[in-house]
Write a structure and sequence with these properties.
This protein has a two-stranded antiparallel sheet. It has six helices and two strands, in the order ββαααααα.
């Protein structure tokens, strides 16, 4: 499931952390390989994506570029998108964070790069759990 997307090899500093578009794409690709094989999360994603993973990956490349670099590549409402799935429950986010953290440890070269991804991911998980619990 590796992306056919041409990585942008320009490194963009985030504070003192260097996270390239290439690293973002590598993290997203590696994470969703884990998701596809996961007994808990795989079926949830597959029920929504129906085998059409590539458009989702491309959206996630842009989403994470926005999160890390403040770009305007992604426009959407991730909370609304997750709530609309319907089968996502709060406990799924601990599995999501666990897989994501494992991926970051495998793909990132430094703790600073890991933090650049993980801190916002944890904030997003908290916001999504709160929204799902309130529905």
């Amino acid at each position: 499931m590796m992306s056919s997307y041409k990585y942008n090899r320009v490194f963009i500093p985030v504070g003192q952390v260097v996270v390239s578009r290439e690293l973002i794409c590598q993290v997203v690709d590696a994470f969703y390989i884990k998701v596809q094989g996961d007994d808990v999360l795989g079926p949830i994603f597959e029920s929504k994506l129906h085998g059409q993973w590539q458009p989702h990956l491309e959206k996630m490349y842009d989403f994470w570029t926005n999160v890390i670099h403040g770009s305007s590549l992604y426009s959407g409402d991730p909370i609304k998108a997750h709530v609309q799935v319907g089968s996502i429950e709060p406990q799924h986010f601990s599995r999501w964070i666990s897989l994501f953290e494992d991926t970051l440890k495998e793909e990132c070269a430094s703790e600073e790069q890991i933090s650049a991804f993980l801190a916002p991911a944890q904030r997003m998980a908290t916001a999504l759990i709160s929204r799902i619990e309130s529905n």
